[in-house]
Amino acid sequence: MKDHRGGWLRAVLPLITFLSHQTECAAKNGRSVVEHHPPSSYWEQGPFSQPYFDNTTKRETTTTVGQSAYLHCRVRNLGDRAVSWIRQRDLHILTVGILTYTNDQRFQSLHSDGSDEWTLKISSPQVRDSGIYECQVSTEPKISQAFNLSVVVSKAKINGNSELYIKSGSDINLTCVVLQTPEPPSFIYWYKGDNVINYSQRGGISVVTEKQTRTSRLLISKALPADSGNYTCAPSTAESASVLVHVLNGEHPAAMQHGNSSNSGAATRTLALLLLLLHAGSFAR
């Protein structure tokens, strides 16, 4: 009788080898999963985990009056809990989830589905809005993270006096500095009166603006009496500053200043004489 066992083994052996190989790969993969995802990570990512704050977010924010402020709160493992924004000075609830809970519609909660970030947006902030804001999570007990907002008044300043006297033929050289601004202005415009200074009106006008140093320089060479007027430096995110420029055709500016000094000195001498006469009169009595 013919033995069929040898043929059966030859047929089954490749299948046994294949299954053995698959088991070995699965075992290797199993070890790989254990190495990259330790048992503790299951509890961290699982349904029993607690929310926690991502401390890499910026906690100190400075903005200028009128420029929108954004406070970014990032919460991991939030689950079905709610995120609220609280103003610390009066414990006023500003937002819950994406809903605004205040009559002041300048406050708004921004959030994208699937994101861990809950952002409080404050439109047109004022100096009074400076202070501490808390990002609060409805755990038991509640957890919160504080954010400090500073709203400053950014102002432009033109170096020198508020009035400038220039002799005809000399240069008008004005330097504007933007103070107390957290970010460089996107632009700085120069005005003469109500009109932006137009370079095509005449030659010899140049403006050099350095955003990083927050400065702008206006140069008008060989000024004429027609160049007299009110010059204004207007940055994009700051209060403007002005200077009144007088271009004199005849009298030298120093003579005018000297004349003012002489008038002031004469007034001082007159006052001293009156005091002397009053003192003399009281002594005579």
UniProtKB/TrEMBL annotation:
Biological processes annotated in GO: synapse organization
Keywords per UniProt: Signal
Domain of life (superkingdom): Eukaryota
Cellular component annotations (GO), alphabetically ordered: neuron projection membrane
Pfam families: Ig_3, V-set
Residues making up the signal peptide according to the UniProt record: 1-27
Domain Ig-like: 51-138, 141-244
Record-linked SMART domains: IG, IGc2, IGv
PANTHER family: DEFECTIVE PROBOSCIS EXTENSION RESPONSE 4-RELATED, DEFECTIVE PROBOSCIS EXTENSION RESPONSE DPR -RELATED
Listed name of the protein: T-lymphocyte activation antigen CD86-like
Organism: Dinoponera quadriceps
Encoding gene (name): LOC106748947
